[in-house]
Fold this protein.
Amino acid sequence: MLKSKIAACCSLVIYLCTVPSAYAIPAFARQYGTSCATCHVDFPKLNDFGKAFKDASFKFPKDDETFIKIPPVILGSPAQKELWPHTIWPGTIPGIPPIGLRYNQFFQATNGNANKFNALLPPGTVGAYIPTTDFETGFFSIFTAGNLGDNIGFWVDDDISVSGANANGGLGDAYLRFGDVSRFLRLPTDSLTAKIGQFELDLPFTQARAYDISPYDIYTQTNIGAANPNFPQQFVNNQVSMQDVGKGIEISGGHHYGGYHYSLAIIDQNTSGTPPAFPGNVPSGAGGSNGGVGFNSDSNFKDLYGRLVYRANLDRDPATRHDVQAAGKTGPHTHNYITLGSYYLYGRSVQSISGFTPNGTAPTVLTAREPFYRAGGDFDFNLHDKFDVYGLYMYGHDNNLLPTVTGEATGPTGFVRGNPATFSGGFVQADYMVYPWIVAIMRWDRVNSSSDLLNGYLASTAGAPVTPFFSPFSSVRNRFTPGAQFLIHPNIKASFEYEIRPQQVVYNAANLQSNGVPMRLTNPFRTNTAVVALEFVY
Amino acid sequence: MQRNLLQVAFLGAVLSLMAHASTISGKVAGVPGVSVIYVEAIAGKTFPVPAEQPVVAQRHLMFQPHILPVQQGSTVEFLNSDSVAHNVFWPSVGGNKKLAHNLGTWPQNEKRAFKFDAVGAVPLLCNVHPEMNGYIVVVPTPYFALTSESGEYKIENVPDGSYSLAAWHEGIKNQSKHVDVAGDAKADFTLSR
């Protein structure tokens, strides 16, 4: 059991090294006969034109028909519109299936400290050995995106296999985007757009399409405070992290290349992280039993997410400032700009436990619906994509309803409100473009979670903690990640990261000191990791 | 009387010039697409700079025309006909990197001009759209022609004489050959990669 948990934790570390599902769209390059650099600084990071292309539902923001080299297939003459509602409203499909593929490969090097977690095993038990060097297959992914006419865009991406195992893949984003719905309501152009399907929330900085090898720690942070029975002052078990995709509807407006932008999303809630196990009278979460498409949410409540951001382009010339691309002697793709934004996610974390009625006589199910929110702000200061410094702060707050026992009951009979379970943190990253094909990166991730600290004390022969780090040395963990990216070709990239991880220590919860803190099994150590990635898209 | 003599003399001069204005024609084989054929510099002769300013447009993410031969000293205008920004620069002229120049980036319907004083091929690039490329071929004499897609060309109004005739083709080393022009002359080239 312990062995499998440690193996799972090791897998988690590897997963954290490889998780970003980054996508560039060579399908667009094919359709428009243009280079990746038209839309990307260093794929998949978008330049201003790429942002405008995305804002326009995957079309050139102006005169798209004059740029596309493979004309779309017309599904009905445009004149059919005059006959509507007595005919189907005509649309288009891309002239060729807009399909792109991506593969990446990793090579990792870490030191033997990672094996110190074997100290948690009972004497004589064979532990999972972590090699100091390792070749690791990454993602093989397929993605398709384009425009279906009338400002309707679509996007689907799917990891066909992850780490060489087909079963590990999964659907990423998959949605229809109805652009510029505002024109029907006589609102300003692009002030209202709707996206329906499964999608990454409108995060300040995308995780799914980030170009770093490792994910932002704060985006992977969950709030799990119920993992350690030795420290029962927290009862939250909220598996939601900001990098999760949401299923629902998002409305948005404005532009990502200048001025305001907002988004509001209502998405399914699933704080348990797994589809609910249904009896046989309803379709299952996987859609397997009793037909239907199944249910994946574990709550009636829908999470709400909102974002408001303003970007000020800093070019002196007003015409240039308001254009999609900045002009200049060296032909930058992107303006000088500063962006300030904020975001807010609200939901309810549901936990059901077996308990008793208040008089303690009859068994019943007790359900805690603990409101939670994630809120923060972000900034981005960019000098023509030559130098870009950006970051965000996040504060996570979960109401903490603690089970209580009253009267003669032998189990919980209700809940009382405890101290909220909170965490905070964020990251700051600086990208410096040495040449158009070399980007030097420095990132600082910071997470402060008292839950993680408490959970870390669970490290014992009884089981490993379930936090992202095996045993936190303190409630704060910092990670410094210098790196570099090299475009070998516009569609082939080599990346490097050295992840300087927080100090860790292995405790033995079964052997407490006089102050109640578990004894250390090893001295604090780091499991720093160097990762090299090689990827291509086509 | 004197006026009549002048008129006769002028007519004679014109007829004389017409009699010596010949044509060089031929075909470029071995490579697909258009080539530029031109008479190389003629010792001791200079030519007036044409007043006409040819235009290279950036349209549909392409330089149009893709290849433009111009006489040395010509001024070429670069017009952005697209609704996206374009940049125009060249990393060398005739392989001389010291003549690299960046005209900058500008939006739709704006144009910038540049006078090409150095002879040689000018590879046009756009650093906003790396796939875009075009060529201005700056030649030293007014005697030049762009071949058809099938490689045929005709250079008209070439005075009789002996010349070095050169062929330029995208991505291929220049080829020269001697040609004597006395009346119509023919010169074929076979280029290879």
Q: What stands out?
A: Residues 22-47+142-193 of chain B form a domain with the Immunoglobulin-like fold (CATH 2.60.40.1120). Chain B is about 10% helix and 50% strand. Residues 2-20 of chain B form the longest helix (19 residues).
